[in-house]
Write a structure and sequence with these properties.
The complex is a heterodimer.
Chain A lengths: L9 H28 L2 E3 L6 E3 L3 H8 L1 H34 L4 H9 L6 H11 L6 H7 L11 H29 L3 H10 L3 H31 L1 H7 L11 H11 L3 H27 L6
Antiparallel strand pairs in A: 1-2
Helix pairs in contact in A: 1-12, 2-12, 3-4, 3-7, 3-9, 5-7, 5-10, 7-9, 8-9, 9-12, 11-12
Chain B lengths: L18 H33 L4 H7 L9 H10 L10 H32 L5 H9 L10 H10 L6 H9 L3 H12 L3 H8 L4 H12 L1 H16 L3 H6 L12 H8 L7 H21 L1 H11 L2
The chains are: A mainly alpha, B mainly alpha.
Keywords (chain A): Cell inner membrane, Cell membrane, Membrane, Transmembrane, Transmembrane helix, Transport
Subunit structure (chain A): The complex is composed of two ATP-binding proteins (UgpC), two transmembrane proteins (UgpA and UgpE) and a solute-binding protein (UgpB).
Main location (chain A): membrane
């Protein structure tokens, strides 16, 4: 708050009212509801529900399918995060270096940001089309018959690839702006001390990018957990079957299609806890943010 | 790194080689990486576009090729004006309209509500300001995806399924814009409020005549980010809109896929063109307002 603020009381309340009421109705109410119904077992015919305590949670942890999906989500998240961060870093370092065409490269490398995840998934479907998909053919030339939506690993591969393709631009933009904010004097000093370009990168530039990197780590984990829903849904064509899926997709499948409201709510709560943990971790990182400049 | 850097990446970088030659080798490598990256981004889209210009029969036989056909008009008409669903209402033009309503409605709603709340928090002496701050900013912690089912139930109870309100308002229930404007308002020098007050401007006048014009760039940056975000929503529209005349392009992508996998000749041309139409507006916005977009992205993500 500014010291020289206005003292009217009715106006700020009026100004806050729309935001607060939307939040109350569409945030706190649903969140509380999820927490509440995670302790209940919904009658399948809609005749009320019974309190079952932590049963929904213990069912979840004992469920091998859920554990398998959780594992897939972890591996998927690690792969997407690592691959999109490292590719973006490579491209950003190069884009920062070149003089000619820098603007065009920037545009060409960032437009995919605006492509919606399910549309990216659609493009993936085209690329991996069974009979003529260019990537199917490419993989075939290495002697593997690629079966999207049939072979578990193939589908997982396609999901990772499409998700990385979609995520590289965001990371690229952040890394590039991180690189451009490194003072010229630092680079010149490094140039005098260290003749090797790769040595300079790892000893000077990379540590300076660390804050951006940590921040992007969280962004990418959140992306892989939640925003890839559209990619997963289009690539499995809405038919989960035996295909790999992420935890968020499972919440949707169980709650919306399977009508297992209690179980789905328990899953939502597990995800909420996960996100909260991530956020706390992020805040602590920001607090201790390493500053070299 | 400056371009006069002696390149360690060039394999021939021994003491004997001339400096100019080494620079060139590393430059070529840099450009090669960037061109490869750009190509990987662009080629899938070009293939999808190519397939939208040739007859479907040709696509089924060969997939993407290098020839640009003459079917673009035809496919465009099919994509925009011919419906694929049961009700005959989810034509491309209808979905395009809905996408714009969602994108613009979401962006405007979020900015207006966010600015109002941020103004109240930053510029007024309120006893419950801290409380309001925390109540609002807790929403940053939980994305819509984790509370998707209960949110659906709330919207259902309020009878807002298949309405634009039901589509847009719950998406606004997160404080990203409020947070963004709060940060920005706090960076505005305090003397401005004092000067305005001395000149006799009330809180409403100060907001409309001084603060809003001052925030123009910020509003533009925020609008671009939010428009793209709203346009690209998928999970929420999938749940809330079940009537085909309410589908957005991104929501309709599953139907587009089914058109492609249809029982007779899969309509690749139309499906691909619809995907391209779904891509063009947000990409256009991002490319043409690049500097605002980058600014918005940098500052909205905390």
């Amino acid at each position: 708050m500014k010291r020289a603020g206005f003292t009217t009381t009715w106006l700020p309340i009026l100004l806050l009212l729309p935001q607060l009421s939307i939040i109350a109705i569409f945030f706190y109410w649903p969140a509380a509801h999820a927490l509440h119904s995670s302790f209940y077992l919904q009658d399948p015919f809609g005749f009320g529900s019974t309190f079952v305590g932590l049963d929904n949670y213990s069912d979840l942890l004992g469920n091998t399918e859920y554990r398998r999906i959780a594992w897939f989500t972890v591996i998927f998240t690690v792969l997407v995060t690592f691959l999109s961060l490292s590719l973006a870093l490579l491209l950003a370092v190069k884009a920062d270096k070149v003089i000619r065409g820098a603007r065009s490269y920037r545009t060409l490398l960032m437009w995919v940001y605006a492509v919606a995840p399910p549309v990216a998934g659609f493009i993936g479907l085209i690329m991996f089309n069974q009979s003529w998909g260019p990537l199917t053919r490419l993989i075939e030339s290495f002697g593997h018959e690629f079966l999207l939506g049939v072979n578990y690993n193939d589908t997982a591969f396609a999901m990772v690839l499409v998700s990385v393709w979609k995520q590289v631009p965001v990371n690229f933009i952040f890394f590039l702006s991180g690189l451009q904010s490194i003072p010229k004097s630092v680079r010149e000093a490094a140039l005098i001390d260290n003749p090797s370009a790769s040595g300079r990168f790892w000893d000077v530039i990379f540590p300076l990018l660390a804050p951006t990197g940590f921040f992007l780590l969280i962004i990418n984990i959140t992306y892989a957990l939640f925003d890839t829903f559209g990619v997963v849904d289009t690539l499995v064509k809405g038919e989960p079957g035996n295909n790999p899926m992420t935890l968020v997709y499972k919440v949707y499948v169980d709650g919306f299609r399977g009508n297992d409201l209690g179980g789905s709510s328990a899953q939502s709560v597990v995800l909420m806890v996960l996100v909260l943990a991530l956020t706390v971790f992020q805040f602590r990182l920001v607090e201790r943010r390493i500053h070299y400049t | 790194m400056s371009d006069t850097t002696p390149a360690a990446l060039a394999p021939a970088a021994t003491a004997g080689t001339r400096k100019r030659r080494r620079i060139r080798a590393s430059d070529i490598f840099d450009h090669a990486v960037l061109i490869a990256g750009s190509a990987l981004m662009l080629i899938p889209l070009l293939m999808v576009f190519q397939m939208a210009t040739v007859p479907d029969v040709e696509v089924i036989k060969t997939g993407p090729t290098f020839t640009i056909g003459d079917q673009l008009d035809d496919n465009f008409n099919k994509a925009m004006f011919q419906a694929s669903g049961f009700s005959g209402e989810n034509t491309g033009s209808r979905m395009l309209l809905n996408s714009f309503i969602l994108g613009i409605g979401f962006a405007v709603g979020k900015i207006v509500i966010g600015m109002m709340a941020a103004y109240a928090i930053v510029y007024f002496r309120l006893r419950f300001a801290t409380l309001a701050f925390w109540v609002i900013f807790t929403t940053l912690l939980l994305p819509l995806e984790v509370r998707i089912l209960p949110s659906y139930e709330v919207v259902q109870k309020l009878g807002m399924l298949n309405t634009y309100q039901g589509l847009i308002i719950p998406l606004i229930a997160s404080a990203t814009a409020t947070f963004f404007f709060r940060q920005y308002f706090r960076s505005i020098p305090e003397e401005l409020v004092e000067a305005a007050r001395i000149d006799g401007a009330g809180p409403v006048k100060f907001f409309i005549d001084i603060l809003v014009p001052l925030s123009r760039t910020m509003i533009a940056a925020m609008f671009i980010i939010m428009f793209v975000y709203g346009w690209n929503q998928y999970l929420w529209p999938t749940m809330i809109t079940t009537e085909e005349d309410m589908f957005t392009l991104v929501r309709g992508i599953k139907q587009i896929t089914q058109v492609m996998e249809g029982n007779r000749i899969p309509e690749y041309g139309r499906a691909n063109l619809l995907a391209i139409i779904a891509i063009i507006p947000p990409v256009f916005v991002v490319i043409f307002f690049q500097s605002w977009f980058v600014k918005g992205l940098m500052e909205s993500d905390k």
